[in-house]
Amino acid sequence: AQSVSQHNHHVILSEAASLELGCNYSYGGTVNLFWYVQYPGQHLQLLLKYFSGDPLVKGIKGFEAEFIKSKFSFNLRKPSVQWSDTAEYFCAALGGTDKLIFGTGTRLQVFP
Amino acid sequence: NAGVMQNPRHLVRRRGQEARLRCSPVKGHSHVYWYRQLPEEGLKFMVYLQKENIIDESGMPKERFSAEFPKEGPSILRIQQVVRGDSAAYFCASSPRSRNGGNTIYFGEGSWLTVV
After folding, report:
1. Contact of B32 with B23, CB cutoff 8 Å
2. Distance (Å, rounded) from C-alpha B10 to C-alpha B12?
3. What band does B86 get if pLDDT is binned at 50, 70 and 90?
4. CA distance A27 to chain B (A)
5. Which backbone phi and psi does B85 adopt, to 5 degrees?
6. CB within 8 Å of B90: residues ≥ 6 apart
7. Which residues of chain B have a CB within 8 Å of the CB of A104?
8. What is the band of A28 on the pLDDT scale with cuts at 50, 70, 90?
9. Å between A34 CA and nearest CA of chain B
10. Which chain A positions have a beta carbon within 8 Å of B108's beta carbon?
């Protein structure tokens, strides 16, 4: 069955530190991959998406993600985080079932 | 604002009452998804609908929950005889599901249900 794993449940960083959040999916066919961000008390916003082509995807707010097919991974990165990046980050995959499956989320706390 | 519209944003119900959550998709989108987010948990798929058709309801609890997406009007998620465990944020999302529109799924701002 299609699934998404996010192994980092809670990440704490200082401002200006680099960020990498792991995401692995299990689906053998063509898959579309997404990262969403949810600020406290708010809805999900799309950070970036991968459908095909260049495996390095750039999104909003300085985030990027790299699709590595051989590792079934789609890790999210940001070279220098800010306090305003404090939020919950969700990786999601859309495969043959047409259901967008989410990981359990990673809570990021950035301290000034 | 042409995004996914959900209402009410916040709903309080007593145990045993009914909750109705409405979702108007992005204009032109023909597919709607409902997700539930329990406190301290991720988003769980509930149901995927096309107009007048339920495509996948594998994430819906077997009892008390139902969803529809009529030809006219918003999609409705209905929870009968609510219990405290139904307290959660319910997110609706829509997708064009067309070749030109791609598979990007857009989310609404959510409806927070509190059962007292």
Report:
1. yes
2. 7
3. very high
4. 16
5. -65, -10
6. B6, B21, B34, B35, B36, B37, B77, B110, B111, B112, B113
7. 41-42
8. confident
9. 9
10. 43
Cα–Cα distance for residue pair B12/A20, rounded to 1 Å: 38
CA distance A83 to B68: 41
CB A94 within 8 A of CB A71: no
Among A32, A43, A98, beta carbon nearest to B108: A43
**Strand intervals (E) in B38-103:** 43-50, 53-56, 65-68, 75-79, 88-95
- Does residue B97 carry a pLDDT above 70? no
CB contact under 8 A, A42 and B109: yes
Parallel, antiparallel, or unpaired: how do β-strands B10-13 and B111-115 relate?
parallel
pLDDT tens-place string over residues A48-97: 999 888 999 999 999 999 999 999 999 999 999 999 999 999 999 987 66
